[in-house]
Amino acid sequence: MRRIILMVIRSIFQLPYWLFIIFRYCNVEKYDEQKRYTFLHRLTTIVNRRGRVTVECHGITNLPKETGYILYPNHQGLFDALIVLETHERPFATVSKKEVENIFFLKQIFNILQSKFIDRDDVRQSMKIMIEVTKEVKEGRNYLIFPEGTRSKNKNQIQEFKGGSFKSAMNAKCPIVPVAIIDSYKAFDTNSIKKLTVQIHYLKPLYYEDYKDMKSGEIATIVSDMIRETIANYESK
Question: What's the predicted TM-score (pTM) here?
């Protein structure tokens, strides 16, 4: 929380203008996706620096050259999205839990990204959303899905990846991009404003030919193992 306050204080004079642009770009029919995303991409980079956070990005060349893929990162907290927004230059949308849909400011950002929300207590609604995601990925949109379902509260340790979160990728036959996020929890969950370096690793994607004969649970295990190994290599240094 202290780092969020620091970000706000150090941006206080620009904040009204940024909010004006954010609310304006919520009109997604008037402003194209690349224009809206470029603004968020640049804004996030500025805000992260003012929060005294440096993002080290690795493996950006692993991202598929074509659009229409799904990013699958481990989930440590709210700062995860800021890491991806700073380092991922192409637009993407998120699939998030319904509980965060109407939080002020987050609501506007999600609107700009044209994100979707899942009600985890409503199987029919969840299925409908995943079908929509499949259709849009086939049409060339990129998505980000946290396969743990909720953030880990154990630092860099990851939780079980849910096989169901990979169904949209399987149905779209699209590239699956594992993403390892390291030390993100330190940004907002430690109550510190010391200079901080976090890491994001875009790992080698799994293409349809790699996973077409696998079940969703098997894919989840492979992706989580790739991320876990990347984190373990970092922590062993």
Answer: 0.93
